[in-house]
Design brief:
By secondary structure, this protein is of the alpha+beta class. The protein has 6 helices and 8 strands, in the order E-E-H-H-H-E-E-E-H-E-H-E-E-H.
Length: 205
């Protein structure tokens, strides 16, 4: 396991960055989610329990921080630096490496979302590449997996750009927008990107 020596961590490539999500991000994060409510609605995770609700922002961050301490997750926000060096980078999305499995598997699942106004600019692929390289090289993981609803074309473009393999359909895999939804599963192993995923992504742009 990697332990506290490698978390928290901040990763950067140009103006795009990943840093740990914080309690004090609540106002900025909430405004961003509200602005993207319609954009996010078809892909929003939901609680399958009768009358179940999603956790509050504070409860979400508390749970993610606990998972990070337990070496089972990396909870990031995606940031972008603006033209002014006097202002901190703005939050433009979220990326979480979750379900980290050690032992003989050494794998994890990655999920992400990006502000609609920033979509299509290469931010999501860059963030995914940064996180994947950190997992492979920093943590010593072997496999990264991303699961996407077949209708989510914007997210499918991210894994296509990065060269994740399509491993097929998982029926009724996750509870999304109030129902069990099929997902396509994409994966990448460390041997497939010996040069690093970020290097490969940048060479293809």
């Amino acid at each position: 396991m990697w332990g506290s020596a490698l978390w928290p961590v901040t990763l950067e490539c140009g103006d795009v960055g990943l840093r740990p999500i914080r309690y004090r991000d609540r106002a900025e994060w909430t405004r961003l989610r509200a602005r993207n409510a319609r954009w996010m609605a078809p892909w929003e995770a939901s609680n399958p329990l009768p009358g179940g609700e999603l956790p509050s922002y504070r409860a979400m961050v508390s749970s993610l921080n606990r998972q990070a301490r337990e070496d089972s997750a990396l909870p990031f926000v995606i940031t972008e630096r603006g033209e002014s060096l006097h202002h901190p980078p703005a939050i433009v999305g979220q990326l979480t490496v979750s379900t980290i499995v050690w032992g003989s598997a050494r794998m994890a699942t990655l999920g992400y979302w990006v502000d609609e106004a920033h979509a299509g600019r290469g931010i999501a692929p860059t963030a995914v590449a940064l996180a994947t390289d950190h997992c492979f090289r920093g943590l010593g993981l072997h496999r990264m997996e991303i699961n996407i609803k077949p209708e989510n074309r914007a997210s499918l473009r991210v894994v296509e750009k990065l060269g994740f393999r399509d491993e097929g359909l998982r029926e009724r895999y996750l509870h999304i927008a109030g129902e069990w939804a099929d997902h396509r599963s994409f994966a990448l192993t460390a041997e497939e990107v010996p040069e690093g995923l970020l290097t490969r992504w940048q060479s293809r742009r």
